């Protein structure tokens, strides 16, 4: 079971990292790290939705860790957020850097919360309809 979980995290992490890379390199290059902000907000929302969905379910552990820790963990990036903030501050103003950090942190929390509400609501509807899978 542990090996299956490790493999799921490894595969999910690889897929998440590749998705992040593809999105980051395809965003328009401006003085603001939109790619990192986008993947962190989307990743927070997706992980929140998945968590809300799984709260009332007994799912397979390797699916939970593969998708949550692996895919969403590989897709989002705290280290790039930190590096981008330092580079942004050096190349721009503290005001722009503060907007970026505020958008990333508060936005990430908000998107995760909204995703959690959505996932919980979808799960309740799914369970109420008798489709318990």
TrEMBL record:
Q: Which residues make up the binding site for Na(+)? A: 73, 76
The regulatory note on its activity is: Na(+) is not transported, but it plays an essential structural role and its presence is essential for fluoride channel function.
One GO molecular function term of this record is:
metal ion binding
Q: Which residues form a coiled coil?
A: none
Question: Entry's Pfam families?
Answer: CRCB
Catalysed reactions listed for this entry? fluoride(in) = fluoride(out)
Tell me which family the UniProt entry assigns to this protein.
Answer: Belongs to the fluoride channel Fluc/FEX (TC 1.A.43) family.
**What is the name of the protein in this document?**
Fluoride-specific ion channel FluC
What is the organism field in this record?
Answer: Sutcliffiella horikoshii
């Amino acid at each position: 079971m542990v090996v299956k979980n490790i493999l799921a995290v490894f595969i999910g992490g690889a897929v998440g990292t590749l998705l992040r890379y593809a999105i980051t390199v395809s965003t328009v290059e401006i003085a603001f790290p939109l790619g990192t902000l986008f993947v962190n907000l989307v990743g927070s929302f997706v992980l929140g939705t998945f968590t809300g969905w799984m709260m009332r379910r007994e799912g397979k552990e390797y699916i939970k860790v593969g998708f949550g820790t692996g895919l969403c963990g590989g897709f989002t990036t705290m280290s790039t957020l930190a590096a981008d903030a330092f580079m942004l501050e050096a190349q721009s103003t503290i005001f722009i850097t503060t907007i970026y950090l505020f958008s990333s942190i508060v936005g990430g929390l908000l998107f995760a919360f909204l995703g959690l509400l959505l996932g919980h609501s979808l799960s309740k509807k799914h369970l109420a309809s008798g489709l318990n899978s």
